[in-house]
Design a protein that fits this description.
By secondary structure, the protein is α/β, with parallel strands linked by helices. Helix content is 40%, strand content 17%. The chain contains three helices and three strands. The protein has helices at residues 19-30, 42-56, 77-87, and strands at residues 10-14, 34-39, 65-69. It has a three-stranded parallel beta sheet, sandwiched between helices. Helix 1 (19-30) links the parallel strand 1 (10-14) and strand 2. Helix 1 packs parallel to helix 2 (42-56). The longest helix is centred in the middle third of the chain and has 15 residues, at 42-56. It is globular.
Length: 94
């Protein structure tokens, strides 16, 4: 038994299409985290999601992967992202 587990936790990963965001996504999936990927374009989100599916050895479903196109959001980004997670029952009401 691990002293520290992330199984079933949710990680909101911004900048998921490149850099640090893209880099931490695989480790999060390997640790059993439900990941919510946020990037500016659908193409970068899908590229990252495809890589995560290869790591997981199976296609990730909406149960363990949420894709959010941040490029469509003009203002109140944190509020918008939290509302999406709440609608999927992945975050507590604030």
């Amino acid at each position: 038994m691990h002293a520290f587990s992330l199984e079933g936790k949710v990680a909101l990963i911004t900048g998921a299409g490149r850099g640090i965001g893209e880099g931490i996504a695989p480790t999060s999936v390997e640790a059993g985290v439900v990941v919510a990927l946020v990037a500016r374009t659908e193409a970068t989100i899908e590229a990252t999601a495809s890589g995560l599916s290869r790591i997981a050895g199976t296609a990730l479903t909406t149960d363990n992967l949420l894709r959010i196109n941040g490029g469509t959001v003009d203002e109140c980004v944190p509020t918008y992202l939290i509302s999406i997670l709440q609608s999927k029952k992945l975050a507590w009401p604030v």
